[in-house]
Write a structure and sequence with these properties.
It is a single chain. The protein is mainly β and 331 residues long. The chain has seven helices and 21 strands. Strands 1, 4, 14, 15, 16, 17, 18, 19, 20 and 21 form a ten-stranded antiparallel sheet that branches. It has a six-stranded antiparallel sheet with strand order 2-3-5-12-7-10, with no helix packed on it. It is globular and about 60 Å long.
Length: 331
């Protein structure tokens, strides 16, 4: 079984499925988006019916679910299930106000994080609530949820950590990189009075949303912790029990960590090399590096976004007292 990095073709959610979507995925990120209301590019996805597809090497044309059957733990570093999902989101209008559950009843929850890739001047997003000490149930019953939303101005490069229970909504005029648990469980709190293709308001999930919400949960924008490595530096933003999110600042050739599955998204053209070959990656291509593939490096001059499964003990040891500045790393 010869392992190699998988250059992925995304699955798109669009049209009536994402009425808030726009055209930035094709206009700016050069994705082959199907229409001008394409809200989500599922870059690396094994969600049933929404799988991304390999476009390089001997397995070109296979979807990610099929690759999990073929490579199993050699791909993920664990079992034969994909623990993470990577998206790029384009919001022409504000998404619905949402909240996700934590892991429960043996089912994966949905903690996630955003890196703002592009934002119109003054664009804002919903990040948490301002309840003034009132019970959330009382606010919702009084029809005052919209007034209680906490808004943050979004600027390119901002990083937001959204653990399960955090009320949130990506605002209009914003494109984000999103890493999340591999789960589609979303409870919709509020949808700005929008209607679906059938002319009826989209379904809300008030009871479930109230059950899982942590009203006071929101963190400042994350600065991260930067460490110097061969070929540049790495800024660590989040390392919770589900995922590790970092930005590589590449200057020359940088070895990539082995032993863990990596999602690599360069923001400039770069080359990914391994003992069996190399591939040139266009800006905002997403590459899945198998956990058991050793000797992988990235070469270029610019930045790359990387998500992986966490090794929190190793990162705490590497960062020492600075570990407290990485979200989710210190319990």
């Amino acid at each position: 079984m010869e392992l190699y990095p998988l250059l992925m073709t995304p699955y798109f959610r669009h049209g009536a499925e994402t009425p808030w979507g726009g055209s930035m995925l094709s206009d700016v990120f050069l994705k082959d988006a199907p229409d001008e209301r394409t809200g989500e590019s599922l870059e690396i996805s094994a969600l049933p019916g929404c799988e991304s597809v390999v476009r390089n090497g001997v397995y070109a044309g296979k979807n990610l679910a099929e690759m999990l059957e073929i490579w199993g733990g050699a791909l993920t570093g664990g079992g034969a299930e994909m623990p993470l999902l990577l998206k790029i989101l384009d919001a022409r209008e504000c998404l619905s106000v949402q909240v996700h559950p934590d892991d429960e009843d043996g089912r994966p929850g949905k903690s996630e994080a955003w890196i703002v890739l592009w934002a119109e001047e003054g664009a804002k997003l919903v990040y948490g609530l301002e309840t003034g000490g009132r019970p959330l149930e009382e606010i919702v019953s009084a029809g005052e949820l919209e007034a209680a939303l906490h808004w943050e101005t979004a600027r390119p490069g901002d990083v937001f950590y959204i653990p399960a229970g955090t009320v949130h909504a990506q605002g209009g005029g914003i494109c984000c990189y999103e890493i999340q648990q591999n789960s589609a469980t979303t409870f919709r709190f509020w949808d700005w009075g929008r209607v679906g293709a059938d002319g009826k308001p989209r379904e809300l999930h008030i009871e479930d949303a109230l059950r899982v919400s942590a009203p006071g949960r929101a963190l400042p924008k994350l600065e991260g912790v930067t460490e110097i490595v061969r070929g540049g530096s790495v800024t660590h933003y989040i390392c919770d029990k589900h995922f590790h999110l970092m930005r590589l600042n590449v200057s020359g050739a940088m070895p990539l960590m082995g032993g863990r599955m990596l999602f690599v998204t360069p923001t400039q053209s770069m080359t990914l090399a391994w003992p069996g070959g190399e591939i040139t990656c266009a800006p905002f291509d997403s590459i899945l590096v198998p956990a058991q593939l050793e000797g992988v490096s990235i070469r270029g001059d610019g930045k790359a976004l990387v998500s992986t499964t966490p090794d929190r003990e190793a990162l705490r040891a590497a960062l020492g007292y600075r570990a407290e500045n990485v979200a989710g790393l210190i319990d």
